[in-house]
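Limitations
The structure tokens in this dataset are predictions for the assembled complex, not deposited experimental models. Users should treat interface geometry with appropriate caution, especially where small molecules or nucleic acid strands are included. An illustrative entry is reproduced here so readers can see what is and is not provided.
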Amino acid sequence: MTLAAAAGTAAHATTTTAAETHGFLSPTGVEIAFLLVGLVTLGAAVITVTTRQLVHAALWLVVALGGLAVEYLLLTAEFIAWVQVLIYVGSVVVLLLFGLMLTRAPIGRSPDADSGNRWIALAVSVAAAGALVWVVVDAFRTTWIDLDGAPAGSTEVTGASLFQHWVLPFEALSVLLLAALVGAIVLSRRAKADAATRASATRRGTEGTR
Amino acid sequence: MHLAYPAVLSALLFCTGLYGVLARRNAILVLMSVELMLNAVNLNLVAFDVWLSRAAEETLHSGQALALFTIAIAAAEIGIGLAIVLAVYRNRGTSDIDRLRDTAEGHEPDDPDSDATGREAPAPRAAGEKAEATA
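Predicted assembly:
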């Protein structure tokens, strides 16, 4: 009984000190900004996966990825934020739009954008969201990020750690990018080469009959 | 900043992407949802790296390095994935992943109902696509 009471008072003391130092119910300005940008990001992501207009999905994906870049800036990871803007917003979304155009996606509303198992998918994702949010909130309830001082993700810090400790994975990643480049070229060339040989074979066949 | 904010946002973004992967039919929309899931993981990595760079004495900034690697791998993945989707579209005339059931058990290629729904329409479009590719 006394042990439990002591543990209870100790837990109470830790929570009160945490609340005193960080202000549990009075969020700082960074937290409010993070929350607002996070709501915009999450809303754009939900519209991306639920809209029936395919091109609008790609454009809302731009909003979601840009919001994530702002979140990186709020977390003082500047280099990651600009890499996010350059690679995701700059190239990945453009690639996706080109893919939508090349597969002749309908411009207006397409009624078959969602498959028949969307309610099962909704149940699975809501269950996963509930479990993950519960676990994460329970685990990191008394943990705060200290954002004061020098930024933790400036270009100098990131470059120094990347080229001091992570040189070998960096080089392996460059080889992987080269392999992906060659693979994409091979995948997009092979069908055309096959079609060309088939066309020449049929042409030869028609000339033979003639 | 409370660590729960980026962690909860990342969990919710991941589950949004999970819903998109499971519920979408167009292959390019599935790739968009995969990008959302990868971005949720990146947010987690960056947030925990910023937290640990203040909490620990010496840090390798492994979270931010891994986030950069994930971004590069996602760019490679989207390139290869779109090349595959374009090759499938060129051969089949569709990018609907519900119709690509050739290796599924119990769904024969000459199934009568699949004939009724989708087999008739893509064939002339695929032929036209072939002719366009050769021209």
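Some entries come with short summary sentences. For this one: Chain A has a mean pLDDT of 82.
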